[in-house]
Design a protein that fits this description.
heterodimer, A: about 800 residues, alpha+beta, eight-stranded mixed β-sheet, five-stranded antiparallel β-sheet, 20 helices, 41 strands, about 25% helix, elongated, B: about 375 residues, BirA Bifunctional Protein, domain 2, three-stranded antiparallel β-sheet, 11 strands, rod-shaped, EC 6.1.1.20 (chain B), ATP-binding (chain B), tRNA binding (chain B), Phe_tRNA_ligase_alpha1_bac (chain B), ATP binding (chain B)
Chain lengths: ~800, ~375
Amino acid sequence: MKFSLSWLKDHLETEATVAEIAAKLNAIGLEVEGIENPAEALAGFRVAKVLTAEKHPDADKLQVLSVDLGDGQPLQVVCGAPNARAGMVGVLGTPGAVVPSNGMEMRKAAIRGVESNGMMCSSRELDLGDDHDGIIELPEGAPIGAEFATFADLDDPVFDLSITPNRPDCMGVYGIARDLAAAGLGTLKPVADTVHAGSYPCPVEIRSDDRDGCPAFFGRTIKGVTNGQSPAWMQARLKSAGQRPISALVDITNFVMLTYGRPSHAYDIAKLSGPVVARRAKAGEGVTALNEKHYLLDDSMTVIADDNGVHDIAGIMGGEHSGCGDDTSDVLLEVAYFDPERIAHTGRTLNLTSDARSRFERGVDTDFLGTGLEILTGLILDICGGEASEAVHVGAAPAGGKVVRYELGLAESLGGVAVREDEQRRILTALGFEIAEIENHWAVTVPSWRPDVDGAPDIVEEVIRIHGLDDVPSVALPRGEGVAKPTATPMQSRERRARRAAAARGLHEAITWSFLPMAEAEAFADEPLWILANPISEDMKAMRPSLIPGLLMAAQRNMARGAASVRLFEVGRRYLRGKGGASDERLTLGVVLAGERTGRSWQSGKAQGFDAFDAKAEALALLEAAGAPVGNLMVMGEAGSQYHPGQSATLRLGPKNVLARFGTLHPSVAKQFDLEGAVVAVEIDLEAIPAKKGAATFTRASYTPPSLQPVSRDFAFLVPADLPAGDLVRVVKAADKKRIVDARLFDVFTGQGVPEGQKSLAIEVTMQPVEATFTDADLKSVSDAVTAAAAKQGATLRG
Amino acid sequence: MADTDSLLAEALAKIAEADTLDLLEQHRVAFLGKKGSISALMKTLGGMSPEERSEAGARFNVLRTEVADALAARKVALESAALEAKLASETLDLSLPAPEASTGSVHPVSQVMDELAEIFADMGFAVATGPEIEDDWHNFTALNMPESHPARAMHDTFYFPDSDEQGRSMLLRTHTSPVQIRSMLKEGAPLRIIAPGRVYRSDSDATHTPMFHQIEGLVIDKGIHLGHLKWTLETFLKAFFERDDIVLRLRPSYFPFTEPSVEVDVGYSMEKGRRVVGGSGDDEGHAWMEVLGSGMVNRKVIEFGGLDPDEWQGFAFGTGVDRLAMLKYGMDDLRAFFDGDLRWMKHYGFAALDVPTLSGGVGVSA
């Protein structure tokens, strides 16, 4: 909402400075986004008279002017405008002035060898219009030498406010003046209450056939108007609001809207036929609106129509065909009340915004239709002439007079600040509320222009915002006894530990978009994706079913920037389908390793890439940090089609609970993401890790380190080549649970001495004696158990 | 007598001259070995009379001990010299680089979220979460934004074509505020929570990204008023920026889910082209910057949360986590937060061990 200081002063009697007004506006919740004085941009541009105009000696299209600034010392100015001539009065930019349209600073200069002390300016150069055919011509009597901005009434600061959607009353200058007056910044001037009786009955029938959408339709005709330009004072005000003056009738309706927050419409009667009716649109009906776009309507939308069809998308935008033009002589005025919800719905459906819509959907003053019509009528009669008909009031806007029960103590118990009773009364009264005292509380009648106020807390807000929030004292929240208690949930602790463990392992935490391009998302999807209906771009369309694609894209960007080694992780959600149409958002840790694991070095020689075991190492370490029982995990297949089928696996707790997938990325997927070389990835489902069983306790299971030395023995087995080594290690370790504490595979061998189709696996078995050292019989017993268990996997002890 | 003396002299001379361990061993064998000269001397004791044996035995033992000691001493000296020589040949150029290990990092947003959790835990706030794919009832309706509410249109919402079983439209939450409703419905009152997380608006320019992070705060209790809100925000910002000169300015505003609503500005000054929080915005060289939206929870919202607004009241606030991180740690481009640029992460990221604690400080100095 933009308006000039003089416009505000039309309604507010005040001596306050611009800074004081701005500070008060901010303090009462009308946020000032900017203050601009157009005159500041025009400093150094002065009214000047051309005394003589001679041809430039060296240029056909230039003239050399002698220009008077009223100080008796004419300046020489070179000018290329065709309309520059002796005797005319124009605007001279003097050295030091900055041309608003291009930011150039004026300097004394020689133009084709002739000294020039400034520039005679066009409207366009001063950002005052589009005219660039010649320099500005001012009337004869303009004060020579005066600052042009002052002469042109441009020395008028413009406020730009951000009006919150609850305050339709402040979408007009008058409402802002009312708030400022209540806040003690001046006196509100009353609204003119002239009533125009009208000299003839309204010749056009108006009515509402849609009392839900349009409960009130006030109007009248004015015949014999002249629709020229609106007066300069009105144009200046509209321009300060950022509106382009169009014609007197259009400007007047805009001016009333911007002054009182009251939209209206003027129809050219010559373009109407029959009664003018508010009704629902018929399916398939359309209208070309004033923005020259055609809108297809449906029967949920209220329109204003006549016998020929729709002329107005009610409360949103008028139609192109029935609007007022230069030749309009008879007008029908429409001042109506439209249901806010319907306006919002229609506007949303048509994707059409307008100044009228934003006011109607927030709720206009329900008690201002008649007054608005009279103000509109008065301005038209004053500016355009003509003869008004009697006013017609069809229906009525919803009754105002909402009454709120308010206890005075609420200002303190909710608003945190004690405000004296007389001050509360003064504030509410100044804002238009009416107070009736009833025993221990007030019955507060809400003014018709405040649809936002409907409860006691709203009244508190009115009182304390005008009283001043600076006066609210800080009061400490009651604090629990003792040291603050831990608040993190087990899941939150798990997330934090996993994140810090990943960083400690040399991985960098990225945060990537939750949305992905379709193809990249589909490559990692096992079920229907969540796809946005209105994505901001095709690259941000599907919610990620995996953290890996986003990390791969980030890895690719890093490689493209020349990174030799990329180690990224992210802790975030995957978006899957849940129960009842809701989402299943699973907290997940993703890791992508690409490029060099170790760079070339004087110690290790050539650079080495990552392999699936790097992924496995990260998976196990991070699972352990996240609290998973890694000793019980099984390495199984089916990591998914995104991975290399022979170099990927899942880590499961039982056959169905997949905690992690890891491995080398499938080369075709790497290619899809434009990544070269081996790329490995890990994805851990942090929510699949089972919670610790039993009640939390700090006490650990008791433990005494054994006093006897452990004993180790090596076993080498021949096994079928396709036997997973992990299976053999597991059974070996389990062969004698009492004595064997560890089994570690340290060699895998194929080749000489190992039959075709087999491999040799060497395992170091560690045994821990507890009460007495092992006897030969004990060791033999363990050895036999190990051999027997291995044999069940098809393993034979290597001779 | 003479034979032992000369033998001792000969042995000591030879031992002293021996310059290798091999030679020394040969001498040992020659003197003390089974067939060595001293051993042979010892064997002569058997043929002596008791008197002679007593005298000669003592002498021979001294001889043997002295030779043995000399051998041992010489051996230590030779070994030591050999070790010195070996070590001299093993010199390494320790100016060569050691094996490199990658140093990882924690993203500033995660770090700041941990900081916020730590600060608010001290004030008794737990961390709550909710879904990012929300339904329009939790995201709007229950927050007092019915379908026609103009504020809905201002939220630049991302929608899905899907509805849930109750026919509610699914969307990406536009703020963390739906967690207020979910927490009230689940936990009841009294309640103190913060809810950090991702939120989404279909908005993208130099200072807006379609995804960003917010943190929501909610207190529901008896007798909570705007003064408590002011104190909480002041206390939080003082702890977060570790400055005592934080000055807040409350401005009346409008949010459908709070009444009264206030926007909160914080005073700052410019230092080396960057905003530094502290001081009053009205002071010389200072200005105000909006940092938080807040207010007393609207009665309707408390009702939607399943609580009695005549019994319970409270406040809520929300702010941008990314922005807090930028203000505290000096990043100036929001878009870089979501790019995964290793160079940026190495510069702005945090070490794994930078765990915020109240005793160690919740901030990490540059």
